[in-house]
Amino acid sequence: MATKQAKKIMIIEDDSFSLKLYASYLEKEGFAVIATPQADEVLRLAKQAKPNLFIVDLMLQGGDGFILVDKIRHTAGFKNTPIIVLSNLGQDSDITRAKKLGANKYFIKSNVRFQEVVDTVRELV
Amino acid sequence: MLKFKKKKELVKDIQFFLDALGDGVFIVDQQGTIVKTNKAASEILGFDQYELLGRLFLSPLGAVDESGNPIDKKNAALFVSLKEGKKINNVTRQFTKKNGDWVWTSITTTPIIKKRKVIGGIVVFRDISAQKQQEEYHLDFAHIASHSLRAPLGNVMWAFEYFMSGRLGPLSKKYQDYVNDIYTKLKEMNSMVNDLLGISRLQHNKIKPKLEKTSLDETIKKVIADLDHYAKSQNVKIKVKISQNKNNYVMADPYHLRTIVQNLIENAIRYSFPRTVIEISTGKKDKDIIFACKNEGIGIPKDKYKFIFAKFFRAKNAVDKQGSGTGMGLYLTKEMVILNQGEIWFESIINKDTTFFVKLKTL
User: Fold this and answer.
1) Considering only residues 77 to 116 of chain A, which have any Cβ-Cβ distance to chain B shorter than 8 Å?
2) Domain ranges within chain A, ordered by starting residue
3) What is the pLDDT of residue B1?
4) How far apart are CA A79 and CA A72, in angstroms?
5) CATH fold of A8-118, please?
6) Residue of chain B minimizing CA distance to A1
7) Distance between CA atoms of B282 and B145, rounded to whole angstroms?
8) Distance from the B151 Cα atom to the nearest Cα atom in chain A, whole angstroms
9) Helix (H, G, I), strand (E, B) or coil at B285
10) ipTM over cut 0.90
11) pLDDT score recorded for residue A2
């Protein structure tokens, strides 16, 4: 369970099943989770909540995850906040692009266990 | 009888035979200049015979290989045949027709050798455009289908992982067994989807390695953790022997390296006898690192060695042991190893053991 000092993780994912799953898993691991399916809400929510790490899906219904990564990276206060991309896009060009825009880590969803994502979250925050 | 005919008549007869062939033919001299061709060649390429004769092979045809790389005198199969005196079978090339359209061909080049000297060569080629187009449709379908399957499959796998972790409360032994079995099947399905996607990307030249310093040890560790449930479900253990070098780093694309290691260990698990041990080891050799994955299992029949890395190939004993599979895993693995400037080979004793080796460059 998240405590007062728990590190805050912001998840941007438009698939409700995935969102529920990530949030529940991370909360059980002791993180505080702020979750939104809306790409256009991210910066507003982030300025209030000041997350320690972002988890971003790339194919968002309300916006482009690549643009979102770029926006986060260029927003004051989040220039050095770790960003993990969790995506089903697995092409080399997607990975390179996301990393160039500022993602610290890129996971192809079906290729890793979620525990590996959690371990990486722990390493980065 | 041909041997009694005069030379002029013989030449006419040869032309008659060449024109009767369904495949395109070029006969070239030692330098690669076209000295004879046939009707099928004209029909496939759209050039009249007189437009081809006397020209250097390739010059009117603007050839490219399957990856879209231009073919020139240095890498053209015919010129290799002329230089090295060896036959080259079934190379796929795209040629430009006279009207600017493209045609896919499968070509075989054979040197003409007289008194141990190459005096010319023969190029025989078939139009395989229809077959290629069919392949493209299949690949496009495979790409769309596998990409669409990937997202829900990934979600369900993570959900099962969550159940199995016990974070949602303990599962009874009975449920645990079912969940483990379902997870194992999901993993197999996932690996098939990944193979299909990988192959489609490979065919569309979308796999471009970004070589960087990558830890082989870390990759092995992560893959083994990922395959832990699968190994347990198949009743096999994985033993890792990593060399003592502190810098077990290779120059490879981290995502490709993971696929390579994952495919080989997954295969080792799939084709192992129960209650056996898979041995993973790494070792340094000169400037390279060799990764080895050995299992005790069904092995590879000797007469199938040459097909083991071929597309869609699955040996009969592999199908008997494990019905499902795309026959793409090892093909994809080999292609990825090559793209990452490495080498792959294997040693096998039927019904005993098999070891796959991958050699990769260090920094």
Assistant:
1) 88, 90-93, 95-96, 108-116
2) 8-118
3) 46
4) 7
5) Rossmann fold (3.40.50)
6) B167
7) 37
8) 6
9) strand
10) no
11) 60
